[in-house]
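Support request, please re-run this one:
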Amino acid sequence: MRPLALAVALTAAALAPVPEAAAQAPPDRATCAQVRAHRTAPPVVTYDRKPGAVRVFAMQFKQEVRHIDTYAAFRTKIECMVREYVVPRLARGRGRVNVVAFNEDIGLMTAGTGSRGAQARQVIANPGGAPGCEGQAFPCATLATLAALNSGYSKELAAYRARFPQMSPASGVFVAATDTFARGWMQTFSDVARRYGIYILGSNNQAPFRESSDPADIEAFADPDHPRPASVFVATSPDVYNEVFMWAPRDVRGDGPPMLRNVVAQNKKVPLTPIEQTLELAPGPATGPAAVDNVRPYPIPGTRAKVAFATSLPAFVYGDPPPGVDPCSDTSKYYMRCVDKLGANVVMQDEANPGRWTGEDGDGIEKWQPLSWMTSTWRAAADPTVAFDYNVTPHLVGNLADLAFDGQTAITQRRLRGPACHYVGNERWIDGEDRPDLKDEAGPKREFLAIAPWVTGSAPRDDLRAVGARLAPGSGDALENDYLETAVVADLTFPRDPGRIGCAQEAGSRRARLAATPRRVRAGRRVTLRFTVRTGRKPLRAGSVWLRGREYRVDRRGRALARVKLPRGTHTATFARPGYRRVTVKLRAAR
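Re-run finished. Output below.
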């Protein structure tokens, strides 16, 4: 569904009117205030408005059971996040493209929509109250949630078992929820892409499907909470994939299920995690032409961005193919090396990390998850054996029954200059806690273009673990399930901007003005640049001016001096100080 023909179709449709979105009107401010997470932060923003730049919104979505009571409730929550975090910051103008990246499993909880999911929603809302789960840890309430869904979808399960006798008893409920997924999260994302003129992506565990108007199918699979529909969406296979979809602003095909008509890229996860294997999900193809097509980057029309998808675990899988072995010969072993070979320059690492962010890694060795995550989000931009320009990692947060999901959304860029930063607790490598092979991953790193804050600031790991325990399911603490909802927004330029500084870590609410004298200089000749920083009419004390990767400290009079020799071209000086919005000034060096 990706390559050239699709790109041509999108380009040809660029001037066509955007089709009407769904009948549901956009939510207003009062409604969006009601569905907002308890703990939110303004988006972390870093712009670079060069021609051809792609503006990416990495959404840190907090899942809550109140957002899945109905199809409309889920649509309202997603659209409110888009209206609050995305719409005011859309890149506008000829040729500008906006990509909104939601998380892995963004659609998973929507299986609990309506009367068929009512019992499951009760378990999710009160995991300790599930029969036999009082005082019990994971996976008691998770299994109770699945049992409740099996009961709620018993009619659909029976119909599918008759069609697919080989259907897995573990993943069958996701097949049973096919019509719910299609009408719910998928129709929402499809409509939002059209309504706001954006690309949008997210993933779910679900089966492939088709639209059917067969009366027998309608009788078997129609939602009992709604009037009898003219058609239903029916699984065509018992195989359930963890699959990511990306929707475009306009339709690229005129037939098929309506929520798939503007899908321009999709990717089936391979390899799978132990939890996914326990649920008996089907991995994406690992060998042959189907495997290559599954991971082939999607070139966004009108830009130089080539987007590859790596849903969580695949982003960690590099492997070391022996000499002469094609890295695309087995994507379950060499996933990242294959997408690098295929020319990807942006890695979309949609994440739903099951476990406390301040807990142990799933490998049973590393005791600090944020350090393990350096081997994916950071490595993609730092490893010299691959050539990705950017990694975009939006994290899902929030408790689902007795399973915590947490993380810090981040965007990394290769060869950034300027300040360095890190995930919480990653200040240094700790003997006895950290894997010996992760010493280089500890400490501040310049490759972070922007990173979302955590619930608290960085602190000793034991203090952070205590906060993680309070957030966790069943803690009974006032902080339980009070994760941070936010977003990270960045312009991705092609080619990369060599003078850009990274480590945007907070939104900054206060404004400053940056001026430079002179603004035009002779290229190749050493000159003294005088920067002044003011807030209102007063000089702004402290902070730094960054130019071509070097830091110049601002003194008590709001001034900084830089003795430099600039090559020919345009250069950007940036003022940065915590609590303030970053401001820039352009310098021109000519012959």
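The domain at 513-590 is CATH 2.60.40.10 (Immunoglobulin-like). Confidence is low (pLDDT under 50) at residues 1-22.
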